[in-house]
């Protein structure tokens, strides 16, 4: 089975960036998704160019950092910073989000990444916002436009005009928090027998920016330890699995 350990949040901070780089160079990660509006974006871009085996996608964001397209009426504050996840979900539930703003912002983030010299091979989103009704249509439309693969929780969504948008056979988000051990990886990979599996992960080194702004911080260091274990890498290869990126689908 092709397994993609995709590290979310590339660009969040230097500590996150360096942890993801380590997880690629000495571990299981071959794929990551970059956040265009976070303080570590430029550092992430520069670092990625030193690690050609690390393939980059776009981590489309509406709930952290600053917008790439400026100030909007329904998805940012007056300074161009995104709303909290709680507030965005509240507005979405009340149909109080201008979906044209969402599409413009997603496109602006993709264009910013491309302008930095990175052609993203797949799209996902921070806090899985792209899976919400209405947001998913925009997400798939942009994936088709840019010929990008996708992470999508509902595997039935890429159909009709989006039937050609590629995704993995399965997606697993359980490698998180208390379940970030080598045994957890053995257990979760054993649950699937399809052609391909994406495992979401968040490896990082702890720095002040991560400690201050994310509630999920120290556990990322534990993820990094597991993801760089020679024993778990050997186990997966012995089981016949292939460590891949979305470009390999």
Short précis:
The chain is an alpha/beta fold.
The overall strand count is: 8
Order of helices and strands: EHEHEHHEHEEHEHHHE
Distance between the termini: 11 Å
Number of helices: 9
Q: How can the largest sheet be summarized?
A: 8 strands, parallel
Assign the CATH topology: TIM Barrel
The CATH level-2 architecture is identified as Alpha-Beta Barrel
- Global structural class: alpha/beta
Beta-strand residue fraction: 5-15%
Query: What is the fourth-level CATH superfamily?
Result: Glycoside hydrolase/deacetylase
Q: What is the overall pLDDT average?
A: 96
The protein's oligomeric status is single chain
The first-level CATH class is given as Alpha Beta
The level of helicity is: 25-40%
